[in-house]
């Protein structure tokens, strides 16, 4: 009994040490970013990254970052991209999951396996081919071209919808069809409204990815008027040094909208993930 108690104590100590260590590693960059955002240029150049700023009421960096980086234009472009990409992706993903779950045909399993295989291929490995296609179709430096690239439904969303369809009885479809409904009617009038938790979960997961996406935005949107919020902050980078106090202020500005949305929809996200993980 003493050995078991001693082992349990050591395990508890190890568990909490690991949790505290992981918390420090996760929160330290955020703390440094917050401290740097309130420092003047002279303060930043003459102090350590962990030194406190002279005042937390100095919002000059935020004003400069917002105006010089043209963040208003970045937010507007990002909002347009988010609305279009998320709307199309949710419809494509949910309808695809509906077909794969409800209709059994030859190649059904192969298609699902191919989606899993596609998830293992790094996105950067296909960019040469994608860029050539975009260039041939004259879609570079156009916001709609960038949106087309992002509209591909991600694998995680498909599997979230698949798990939700597993929990919806087929009798719903059969009853509606017997009453004269079409497959489109079954999907849009009966099943789609029941997918609300999965839709919210997919919206948040896909939305965060689109909101933070930098590589393709920098590659395909080279016009200054088409910059998104992720590329706007690179206004303060250059060959002679980076203005990190302005960059950190801009980072905090970009975090606020997505943080507010997450706090609003966190219950739906957690319930969606939990419900989607249980098969009926």
Automatic annotation (TrEMBL):
Highest taxon above the source species: Bacteria
Transport recorded as keyword: yes
GO biological process annotation, one example: transmembrane transport
ABC transmembrane type-1 domain segment(s): 75-265
Keywords: Cell membrane, Membrane, Transmembrane, Transmembrane helix, Transport
InterPro entries with a match to the protein in the record: MetI-like, MetI-like_sf
Keyword Signal on entry: no
Membrane disposition: Multi-pass membrane protein
Subcellular location: Cell membrane
Chain ranges passing through the membrane: 12-38, 79-101, 113-137, 143-162, 183-205, 244-265
GO CC, alphabetical: plasma membrane
Database matches in SUPFAM superfamilies: MetI-like
Signal peptide: none
Family (UniProt): Belongs to the binding-protein-dependent transport system permease family.
Protein name per the record: Carbohydrate ABC transporter permease
Organism: Candidatus Fimimorpha faecalis
């Amino acid at each position: 009994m003493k050995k078991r108690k001693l082992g349990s104590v050591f395990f508890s100590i190890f568990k909490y040490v690991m949790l505290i260590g992981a918390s420090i590693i996760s929160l330290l960059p955020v703390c440094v970013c917050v401290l740097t955002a309130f420092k003047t240029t002279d303060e930043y150049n003459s102090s350590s990254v962990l030194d406190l700023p002279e005042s937390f009421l100095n919002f000059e960096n935020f004003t400069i970052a917002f105006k010089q980086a043209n963040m208003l234009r970045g937010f507007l472009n990002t909002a347009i991209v988010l609305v279009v990409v998320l709307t199309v992706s949710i419809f494509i993903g949910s309808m695809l999951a509906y077909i794969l779950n409800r209709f059994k045909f030859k190649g059904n399993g192969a298609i699902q396996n191919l989606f899993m295989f596609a998830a293992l291929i790094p996105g950067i490995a296909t960019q040469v081919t994608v860029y050539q296609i975009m260039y041939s179709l004259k879609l570079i430096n156009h916001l709609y071209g960038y949106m087309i690239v992002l509209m591909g439904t991600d694998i995680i969303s498909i599997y979230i919808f698949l798990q939700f369809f597993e929990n919806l009885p087929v009798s719903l479809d059969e009853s509606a069809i017997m009453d004269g409904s079409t497959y489109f009617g079954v999907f849009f009038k009966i099943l789609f409204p029941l997918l609300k938790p999965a839709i919210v979960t997919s919206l948040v997961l896909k939305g965060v990815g689109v909101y933070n996406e930098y590589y393709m935005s920098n590659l395909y949107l080279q016009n200054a008027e088409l910059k998104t919020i992720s590329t706007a902050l690179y206004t303060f980078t250059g060959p002679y040094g980076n203005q990190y106090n302005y960059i950190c202020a801009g980072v905090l500005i970009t975090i606020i909208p997505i943080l507010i949305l997450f706090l609003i929809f966190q219950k739906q996200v957690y319930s969606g993930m939990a419900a989607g993980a249980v098969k009926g």
